[in-house]
Design brief:
The protein is an alpha+beta fold. It folds into 3 domains: 65 residues, Orthogonal Bundle (Arc Repressor Mutant, subunit A); 62 residues, no CATH class; 61 residues, no CATH class. Helix content is 41%, strand content 18%. It contains 8 helices and 9 strands. Strands 6-7-9-8 form a 4-stranded mixed beta sheet. The protein has a 3-stranded antiparallel beta sheet with strand order 1-3-2, with no helix packed on it. A hairpin with a 2-residue loop joins strand 8 and strand 9. 28% of the residues are buried.
Length: 201
């Protein structure tokens, strides 16, 4: 019978390079303590790289820069998927995602219906901020970003350029989803979002 370490190694090598893994993924192979020790040994052997506490990646290699680690955004997405929680980017992260800010936020703030926590990923951090479930009801990938980006800019502080850019993005959203999400937004944000529905059937 294969050891816990060998079973985990086989499982990892069956995954694509760049895949993120968590200790819980390997609980069928041994006790939590056995899994932890096996992951430590696999890290020492460079089969895995630890990207944050309790989060590992099967590394990808680049001839130019060596080991390529996942971005903080990819880590955040993997955590949300693992925990089966909803998340919505907020603040400067939402602005950056819509191209309204070229500054890469050092702290990613995600509104969530899951547990609040903060995770360090290299020099950046991911903060899961627990909010009321109704804050997460927006369905559209673009419209929920737009709502949070506009909240970050503030009522009366949205430039013509920023408004135009947001409306352009919103035109790519499914109309039925956009109408659903507009109804969830504050009135001043609804007025901006509704501009994306003009000339749309």
């Amino acid at each position: 019978m294969l050891s816990t370490e060998k079973q985990i190694e086989r499982s990892i090598k069956a995954r694509p390079k760049g895949a993120l893994v968590f200790p819980d993924d390997f609980l069928p192979y041994g006790s939590p303590e056995a899994v932890r020790k096996a992951l430590d040994r696999l890290e020492d052997r460079h089969v895995l790289v630890r990207v944050a506490h309790g989060i590992y990646v099967r590394p990808r290699e680049s001839e130019l820069i060596g080991t390529v680690l996942p971005t903080a955004e990819e880590v955040a997405e993997a955590i949300a998927k693992r925990d089966k929680v909803r998340t919505v980017p907020s603040g400067s992260y939402a602005l950056n995602a819509l191209g309204l800010s070229t500054q890469i936020p050092m702290k990613i703030v995600l509104l969530t219906d899951g547990s609040p926590r903060e995770i360090k990923v290299g020099r950046r951090s991911i903060k899961f901020k627990k909010v009321a479930p109704k804050t997460l009801l927006a369905k559209g990938k673009v419209s929920r970003l737009a709502i949070q980006a506009l909240k970050e800019l503030g009522n009366g502080h949205v430039s013509d350029y920023e408004e135009k850019k947001i409306v352009e993005h919103l035109r790519m959203e499914d109309v039925a989803i956009l109408k659903h999400d507009i109804a969830l937004a504050p009135v001043w944000i609804q007025k901006i979002m509704n501009k994306a529905l003009t000339d749309v059937a």
